[in-house]
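Subject: sequence -> structure tokens, single chain

Hey, anyone have a minute? Need the predicted structure for the following. Not urgent.
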Amino acid sequence: MHTRRHERQVVDYEVKCFLQGCEERLFIYDICVDGCCIDTDGFRVEIDEKLYFKFLDSIGVEGKVVWKNDRYAGVQFLEELHPALILHLGFQVSGTTMGEFQPRDRFGRELPPMSWAARLLQS
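Reply:
Had a minute. Here:
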């Protein structure tokens, strides 16, 4: 099993991408300092193809497609991004209080309410 060197942050971030001499806008769904997963819906990319990403209008990085399936592709950056950028881009629930937040497992499934006995143990 492949182990990642860096923890991925879940994102839903539209980024400018320069591909085959053309500027495109695409979505990144997860990112870490050395790579990301992109949605390739609407344009073609091939394994080993080079892309250039421009984040926040001033931070750029070149990457290479290392895997691809029907709609998504994995990109390995040629230089690592600063960890602060990754944290900035990471998914944040806005406008939600902790009381409204529904806990989920790592697969995105809602967790069941805590049992009466478990609540007693917490107090």
